[in-house]
């Protein structure tokens, strides 16, 4: 669990990026931070791995104050995925993915074997392992970024608008792959986006921020769409909020139906010769 208690970030010019934030992020779930530009969602994310330090308040990860942990050591234990992947252009794909294991002084062969396994897990052909980032498409680069964040098997992952730089079709594919991975790995994920549709699709819970770094509402997608906390949240969700909620509920119903079908055992195969043979045996 990640807990923010009374967290404020104020810059020297007086600008308040995050104001008196109280927030509990559940372990093993996806929490999405959403809101307009300048609302403090990325600042909130970056305070978790101490890329930015709060002016006041406390942030804990699994009960431990992050100020007690050396920043480089803290960051090596937290996966971090950013927009446009942030890959090292002079390193091959396999070595990009193995960056953190190398920093942790893991055996090079072992780290590269792990990198190849992760390429397959995120849907990348291992034949791309010796290529460089510039030789990959935008969607492939984002998959490399996710694989790199998973390389040291961190319990926490921070994702800052990781899919926003790709076209809508690829973005949908990446979202689906991300949900598949999370169903297998159950990481604690903090995901930043400005897109409410992406937030509803991915988040177990959604934190809506308004300008000034104020948390306007923290709720499940269904609760958020059904009961916006105030006019700001209602306006941010848009006039088609009802359609979004209907689509969300329909998708949940479809998933539940698929799970029920999967739980029903397949009918037994009839004996050779069909029903007549079975009758003859009787």
- Span between termini: 61 Å
Tell me the Rg in angstroms. Answer: 22 Å
Largest sheet: 6 strands, mixed
Number of domains: 1
**Helical content, roughly?**
40-55%
Strand order of the largest sheet: 6-7-8-3-9-10
- Provide the CATH top-level class: Alpha Beta
The CATH homologous superfamily name equals: P-loop containing nucleotide triphosphate hydrolases
Could you tell me the number of beta strands?
10
Order of helices and strands: EEEHEEHEHHHHEHEHEEHHHH
Mean pLDDT metric: 85
Could you say what the CATH topology is called?
Answer: Rossmann fold
Which spans of ≥5 residues are poorly predicted at pLDDT below 50? Answer: none
Strand content: 15-25%
Q: Based on helices, strands and strand pairing, what is the structural class?
A: alpha/beta
Overall shape: it is: globular
Total helical elements: 12
Domain ABC transporter: 2-237
GO molecular function, one term: ATP binding
EC number: 7.6.2.9
Protein name: ABC-type quaternary amine transporter
Describe what you observe in this structure.
By secondary structure, the chain is an alpha/beta fold. It has a single domain, classed as 3-Layer(aba) Sandwich (Rossmann fold), CATH 3.40.50.300. Helix content is 43%, strand content 21%. It contains twelve helices and ten strands. It has helices at 41-48, 71-76, 93-97, 99-103, 108-121, 138-150, 168-185, 196-202, 221-226, 231-237, 241-263, 274-281, and strands at 2-10, 16-25, 30-34, 56-61, 64-65, 78-82, 156-160, 188-193, 205-210, 214-219. It has a six-stranded mixed β-sheet with strand order 6-7-8-3-9-10, sandwiched between helices. Strands 2-1-4-5 form a four-stranded antiparallel β-sheet, covered by helices on one side. Strand 4 (56-61) and strand 5 (64-65) form a beta hairpin. Helix 5 (108-121) crosses helix 6. It starts with a strand and ends with a helix. The mean pLDDT is 85.
């Amino acid at each position: 669990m990640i807990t923010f208690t009374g967290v404020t970030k104020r810059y020297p010019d007086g600008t308040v990026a995050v104001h008196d934030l109280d927030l509990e992020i559940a372990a093993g779930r996806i929490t999405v931070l959403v809101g307009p530009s300048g609302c403090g969602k990325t600042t909130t994310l970056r305070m978790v791995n101490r890329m930015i330090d709060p002016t006041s308040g406390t942030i804990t990860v699994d009960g431990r104050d992050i100020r007690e942990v050396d920043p480089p050591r803290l960051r090596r234990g937290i996966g971090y995925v950013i927009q446009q992947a942030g890959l090292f252009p002079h390193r091959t794909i396999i070595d990009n993915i193995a960056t953190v294991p190398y920093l942790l002084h893991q055996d090079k062969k072992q780290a590269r074997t792990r990198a190849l396994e992760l390429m397959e897990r995120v849907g990348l052909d291992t034949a791309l392992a010796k290529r460089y980032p510039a030789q990959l498409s935008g969607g492939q680069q984002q998959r490399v970024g996710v694989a790199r964040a998973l390389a040291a098997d961190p319990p926490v992952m921070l994702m800052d608008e990781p899919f926003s730089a790709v076209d809508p079709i690829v973005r949908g594919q990446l979202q689906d792959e991300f949900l598949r991975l999370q169903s297998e790995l159950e990481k604690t994920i903090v995901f930043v986006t400005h897109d409410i549709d992406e937030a509803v699709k991915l988040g177990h819970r959604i934190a809506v921020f308004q300008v000034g770094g104020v948390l306007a509402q923290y709720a499940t997608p269904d609760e958020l769409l059904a009961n916006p906390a105030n006019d700001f949240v209602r306006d941010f969700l848009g006039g088609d909020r009802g359609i979004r909620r209907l689509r969300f509920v329909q998708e949940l119903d479809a998933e539940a139906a698929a799970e029920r079908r999967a739980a029903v055992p397949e009918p037994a195969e009839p004996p050779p010769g069909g029903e007549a043979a079975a009758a003859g045996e009787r």
